[in-house]
Write a structure and sequence with these properties.
Blueprint lengths: L1 H6 L2 H6 L2 H4 L4 H12 L6 H6 L2 E6 L2 E7 L4 H10 L1 E5 L4 E6 L3 H8 L13 E8 L5 E11 L2 E6 L4 H18 L7 E4 L4 E6 L3 H6 L16 E6 L7 E7 L7 E6 L4 H9 L4 E3 L2 H10 L26 H6 L5 H10 L3 E8 L9 E3 L6 E10 L6 E8 L8 E6 L2 E8 L12
Parallel strand pairs: 3-13
Antiparallel strand pairs: 1-2, 3-9, 4-7, 4-8, 5-6, 6-7, 9-12, 10-11, 11-12, 14-17, 14-19, 15-16, 15-18, 16-17, 18-19
Helix pairs in contact: 6-11
Length: about 425
Amino acid sequence: MLAQVWKRAPAMRAAVSASTMRAAAPRAFHAAAVRAALGRTRLFDFHEKHGAKMVPFGGFQMPLTYGKVGQVASHKHVREHAGLFDVSHMVQHKFKGATAAAFLQHITPATLGADKMKPFTSTLSVLLSPEGGILDDLIITKHGEDEFYVVTNAGRRDEDLEYIAKQLDAFNKENVSNGYTEHEVMDHQGLLALQGPSAAAVLEKLLPQDFDLSKLTFGQSAFVDLQLPNHAPVHVHVARGGYTGEDGFEISIAPEETEAVADALLADAEVELAGLAARDSLRLEAGMCLYGQDLNPSVSPIEGALAWTISKERRAAGDFLGAERIQCELKEGPPRRRIGLIVEGPPAREGAKIFAEDGTTEIGRVTSGIPSPTLGKNIAMALVKNGYHTRGSSVLVEVRNKKHNAIVSRMPFVPSKFYRG
């Protein structure tokens, strides 16, 4: 992390000499340097006011937990009531223009055409390299035939923006006769995730009386004016979905109004603030990937168990970056597969080796692993050699130099509760 921070802060590097870095209390200096170079969302002071433990994540200082509420208690509150997450560190984009859909279909395998995707619907997709590897996972929301709202990961911000700019420049030059695509990064825009079985009832209290939330199903979105107490209406974009497996909403808000919306949502007795710790255990129970662990540029959508994001027509056309590898893996099978595991013994963490039943044949590595607060079992996600991915198969996972039994499991580990009407 420090190396990444130093790379992004040339002014700081110039001001601090090598001799200073070797001076007394190097650890304290390094920690201070990291904090100074990390970004802050509009809710940084809000988090500190509510007793957040702040940690580096995705280039930002983000809340891990709040006060004396531990990760397990916070996790369970989201599963049983509602949790409010600040996800403003994520990168929000707008793509506009006559060729916007064509450009997004060039860099992702998503299907965005007028006859396939209606306005104000969303889809999960992946940003692909020319070699067919996943550069990031993202959500694409269609606002119109020539306008799209996209959310990508904060930890990939620099790499994604450089790659998108390069691809867009080439695409616009090649398609100049068909129109032009503009790309806007919505810097400082707020983004809140309200997640849990009580999320709809909480949000409904702030909606206009004529807005029927029951008609906004999973994967749909809308612009709406929230009615906050003692405050002018706040215009927001509400998308039904999230990263926990629960019903919920992601709310995009103008920077100056983000804290007011957070306060209004938190005022409801059903809502508690939740941080990165709970977010990670919730998403893993839901079988959702964390980029940089479960997915990386070497992993294809087929290896990553994301073949479902590629429609039959896109598979057949092969008119997107990396299509050659993906078409080959669809036909012949991928070298690796992303799987779920139920692990006996201690929890298996990222990097733990996985062996076949013979105990000697190494077949893969754990990419994410936790004790599941909901199931009371140790669960993990892994990449293993093709052929060892059959549900119910037995494998061995090495933890602290000892091999423990594990069973290949279906994902999600905890059934999703997305609202589909």
